[in-house]
């Protein structure tokens, strides 16, 4: 039979630390007038930390009068005592420390190789000490970035900055940000800023680095060359095609002398020539971490900006997540309301434009279509704006394919005995659907199964212009 008395053992070791009986280590912690002498026991420290095992080895240790001497000017005395108390008895209390001191403590435990505390302190900072990031965002980011073991904290702060960019970009310290960190942020697809603001912030940073006037008319050739060189590494990360034409003309084109000429040419063509699409090599739009509400068991909020961009016939890589023009109101759900055609028409007729989505049985595939008209009446309806779509994996929007109607005269059909019909793709008024081979004449082939197939469920949403 064995017994465990961990609490009593921990308390005894804490008394050993407090009373300093038999100490053989003298630590000089802090610097200047704040230096404090702290006493400890080498055996305890060596057992608990590889750092101290190395520090007290024959190759490194300094001894005076039989005692090890350790100088740690970079660790504040009160923080060193917190670390030592943890080493002795496994106790740590962070609630009386402010955020900056907690971060300094984290840096110290990383240096001293106290691995259990690295994760614990990161977790504490994330849960309880986020406000101090606002006080010195550039300093905090750079400090965390320099320590490979601070992965959790780095990911948290990076996400926090992307969600609330004003913490950093509106800070007086923004211009002090290291170029490598700025590049990391500009690469992020989830940086929640209008692209013109991203561009203006980059210019502000560049002007500060080179100490030049923000009006390019006042630049000499040497200043133009300096700004051009500094901007070069960041240009691929600016989503220029997402900048509105007016902002492009007044806030981007003015700096044409420091931008690649082929980029300026492509942007001018895009804004001036009708129906010109962005070049395929450009960086995709930022996908802001904004949640859109949709009452659906099939699609998620991430589908909403995509649907909106397709309705507006905009490039799917360049929709504006912050200015969605439509609401999507659930009208009909087959596994709630029944698969019969009569219920579909009762709930969806006289509702104007709708989008429907169906899940194919035994797969994750979602298919659907947009009817800009309505489901009233009998027979065919004409529109050039309808489309079909197909997600091979409904949870992964990158698998989406889109096909606008090729024959507007046969875009939509309405029959009381059927559910949605687009071209020759239609619901048979139950869970069985049909996609006839010659539907490819009316809509592009985007991978929707041909012949007959079964759907688990389908939903219809009214598309309401905001």
Question: Summarize this, please?
Answer:
The protein is an alpha+beta fold. Helices cover 38% and strands 17% of the residues. It folds into three domains: 6-91, Potassium Channel Kv1.1, Chain A; 178-272, no CATH class; 303-465, no CATH class.
Structure, described:
InterPro entries: BTB-POZ/Galectin-3-binding (IPR051481), BTB/POZ_dom (IPR000210), SKP1/BTB/POZ_sf (IPR011333), TLDc_dom (IPR006571). This is BTB domain-containing protein. The protein has 466 residues and is of the alpha+beta class. It is built from 18 helices and 15 strands. Strands 5, 6, 7, 8, 9, 10, 11, 12, 13, 14 and 15 form an 11-stranded antiparallel β-sheet that branches. The longest helix is centred in the middle third of the chain and has 16 residues, at 195-210. The protein starts with 5 loop residues before the first helix and ends with a strand. The mean pLDDT is 89.
Low-confidence stretches: none
Helical coverage, percent range = 25-40%
Terminus-to-terminus distance: 74 Å
User: How much is the radius of gyration in Å?
Assistant: 32 Å
* β-strand amount: 15-25%
Instruction: Report the major sheet.
Output: 11 strands, antiparallel
Individual helix count: 18
Determine the mean pLDDT.
89
Q: Say how many strands there are.
A: 15
Find the structural class using helix and strand composition. Answer: alpha+beta
Question: How many structural domains can be distinguished in the coordinates?
Answer: 3
The best one-word shape is elongated
Domain BTB: 23-96
Organism: Rhizophagus clarus
Protein name: BTB domain-containing protein
Pfam families: BTB, TLD
């Amino acid at each position: 039979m064995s017994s465990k008395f961990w609490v009593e053992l921990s308390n005894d070791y804490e008394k050993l630390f407090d009373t300093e009986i038999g100490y053989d280590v003298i630590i000089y912690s802090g610097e200047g007038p704040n230096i404090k002498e702290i006493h400890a026991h080498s055996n305890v420290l060596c057992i608990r930390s590889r750092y101290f095992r190395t520090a007290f080895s024959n190759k490194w240790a300094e001894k005076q009068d039989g005692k090890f001497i350790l100088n740690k000017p970079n660790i504040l005395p009160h923080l060193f005592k917190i670390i030592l108390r943890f080493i002795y008895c496994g106790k740590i209390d962070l609630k009386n420390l402010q955020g900056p001191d907690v971060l300094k403590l984290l840096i110290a435990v990383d240096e001293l190789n106290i691995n259990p505390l690295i994760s614990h302190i990161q977790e504490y900072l994330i849960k309880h000490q986020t406000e101090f990031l606002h006080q010195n965002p550039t300093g905090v980011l750079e400090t965390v970035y320099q320590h490979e073991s601070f992965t959790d904290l780095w990911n948290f702060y990076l996400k926090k900055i992307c969600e609330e960019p004003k913490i950093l970009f509106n800070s007086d310290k923004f211009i002090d940000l290291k170029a490598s960190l700025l590049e990391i942020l500009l690469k992020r697809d989830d940086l929640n800023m209008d692209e013109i603001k991203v561009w203006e912030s980059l210019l502000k940073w560049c002007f500060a680095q080179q100490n030049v006037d923000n009006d390019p008319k006042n630049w000499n050739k040497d200043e133009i060359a300096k700004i051009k060189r500094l901007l070069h590494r960041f240009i691929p990360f600016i989503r220029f095609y997402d900048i509105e034409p007016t902002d492009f003309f007044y806030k981007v084109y003015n700096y044409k002398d420091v931008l690649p000429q082929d980029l300026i040419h492509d942007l001018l063509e895009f804004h001036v020539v009708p129906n010109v699409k962005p070049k395929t090599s450009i960086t995709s739009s930022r996908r802001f971490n904004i949640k859109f509400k949709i009452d659906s068991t099939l699609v998620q909020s991430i589908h909403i900006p995509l649907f909106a961009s397709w309705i507006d016939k905009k490039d799917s890589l360049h929709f504006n997540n912050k200015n969605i023009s439509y609401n999507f109101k659930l009208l009909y759900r087959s596994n709630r309301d029944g698969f019969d055609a009569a219920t579909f028409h009762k709930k969806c007729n006289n509702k104007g434009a709708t989008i429907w989505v169906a899940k194919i049985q035994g797969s994750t595939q979602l298919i659907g279509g947009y009817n800009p008209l309505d489901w009233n009446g009998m027979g065919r309806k004409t529109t050039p704006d309808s489309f079909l779509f197909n997600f091979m994996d409904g949870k992964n929007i990158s698998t989406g394919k889109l096909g606008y109607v090729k024959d507007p005269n046969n875009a939509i059909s309405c029959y009381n005995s059927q559910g949605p019909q687009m071209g020759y793709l239609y619901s048979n008024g139950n869970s069985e659907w049909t996609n006839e081979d010659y539907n490819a004449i009316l809509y592009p082939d985007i991978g929707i199964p041909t012949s007959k197939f079964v759907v688990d469920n389908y939903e219809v949403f009214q598309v309401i212009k905001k």
